[in-house]
Design brief:
Length: 418
Amino acid sequence: MRKICVLLIISLILSACSFEGEGASEEQPETENVAELPVIEVPVEEEEEEDLPTVSEEAAEIPEEPESVSVSMIFAGDIAFDDRYANMVSLRERGSISACIAPSIIDRMNRANICMINNEFPYSDRGTPTPDKKFTFRARPETVEYLKVLGTDIVGLANNHAYDYGEEALLDTFDTLEGAGIPYVGAGHNIDEAAAPYYIEVKGVRIGFACATQIERSLPPDTKEATADSPGVLRTLDPTRFNETIREADENSDFVVVFVHWGSENVNDVEEAQRELARGYAAAGADLIIGAHPHVLQGFEYVDGVPVMYSLGNFWFNSKPLDNCVVEAEVTSDSEGTRLSELKFIPCRQTNCYTSEVEPGSGEYMRILDFEREHSRDVRIDDEGVVTYGEEGNEDGVPDDTSDADDTVSEEMLDVPE
C-alpha cells in the first residue's frame, strides 16, 4: 500500500512538470535534458497472519464434561458352610449351591459390580472349638468355591464366629480366601491389618470398605480382637479405632461402605446403641451402613443423611422359615461428585434350607415390604423396594434399648440335624 502511494505522488509531480513545460514552449524538451527520477521502492512490512486455531484445536482446549458412570453393589447377610448343620446337609443331598439359593438371586449377585457377604465362620481343618461356647462353626476350605459361584467379590470377617476354632483356623481362613482370590475385611494377622479398609475400584470409582463387630458385648469376648502381634478381628464396642478406619477410607476413596456386626439376635427392633454407633460412623465419613448379626430383618433409617440398613437377616443359614433379603445399591459418579443414586430392598425368604426371591406384587412380597416399612424410620419404601428419605416409616420414637439381650445363637435358629 505504501509503495502505491509513493508511485502516485511521483506521477503527480511528473504531471505538474509537464504542465509547466507546455506553458513556456510547445517544443518537447530533449530527452537528454530530462532528469531521470529514480523509482523509490519503499519496503512494505508484511502483516503477520494471525494463527487462528482450527476447529479441532479449539475443541481440544475445551474441557470435556466428565462421563457419568454407575457402580452396582449387592449385600447379603449371614451365611454358613459348616457340614454339621441342616443347610449343608441339604446341599450335599441336592448336589449344588444353586439348588439351595435361587438362580435369580445368584444372577443378581453375579451381575453386580461388587457383591459382599457376611462370612460367619472360619475355613479350616485345624483348631479346637472355643471352650464353653454353645455353637461353633467351621467349614472345609474347599467350600470357599461356593462363594465364587455366588459371585462374591469381598467378605466381612468381623463377626462373632470367625474365631470359633482359634488362631490356627483364622489364619487358615486368610489363606483360603486369598487362594480363592476373594478379599476380606475386618480381620487380619495383626490389628493394623484388621483395621485396614479394603478398596475396590470399578470404572474409575474407588469404593472403600470398613468392617467391625460390636458382638460379643460380654467381656472378655470369645472372639479375639487382633493385637499388634496376633491375629483377630476388629471390634467396635468402643468405636474409637473403627471410626479412625472409616476416616481413613473416606480420605482415600470416593465412597465408603461400613459393614458392621451389631444388635441382638432374633430382635427386629433397632437398639439405641446401634443408632449411636451409626451416628459416629456417619460423622467419620460413612456413605452407606449395612448391618448383620440379628439373624432377622431390621429396618432402614437415614442417620445424619447417611442411609443405614440395620440388619439383612440370615441369607442362607438353616432350614427355619425366615424372611430375609438382599440389598442393592447403585453409586453414581459424574461432574457433581460421587453419591448413592439408588438403594433397593429385595424381599426374599428362606424355607427348608432354600433362599429365594419373593415374587413381586404377591401377598408375601407386600407383607415383607410392609413389615420393613413398619420397622424403618423416616424412610419411604416404594412397591418396587426402592428406599428413599421420607416420613412414611415408623415415627414412634426410639424402641426400648435391648442392648442386654442374649447374644447366643438359639438351637431353633440353627436347626441342628440329629
